[in-house]
Design a protein that fits this description.
about 80 residues; mainly alpha; about 0% strand
């Protein structure tokens, strides 16, 4: 692992330190995970990855409306009318 010097504004350093304390890990670990998360969020996902993510979302919400897929526009209009 290579060392890198990073200067953080005091409020951000305090937040990182508090998160590290709560999780019981080092400040360095929190910073490494945050950088990795930021880089992952910034990369472009392949079409296959996007399809997998979309498929994982299917069925994860229950509304109680048995015909929501067929009549979503009507339910939406009704919700905005109230």
């Amino acid at each position: 692992m290579e060392a890198t010097y990073v200067r953080l504004p005091q409020p951000l350093k305090a937040r990182v330190t508090e998160l590290a304390r709560k999780r019981g890990v080092s400040v360095s670990q929190v910073i490494r995970e945050s950088v990795e998360h930021g880089l992952d969020a910034d990369r472009e996902h392949s079409r296959a990855e996007l399809w997998v993510r979309a498929a994982q979302a299917v069925g994860c919400v229950t509304t109680g409306e048995p015909d929501l897929a067929a009549h979503h526009d009507e339910y939406l209009a009704e919700a905005f009318a109230t």
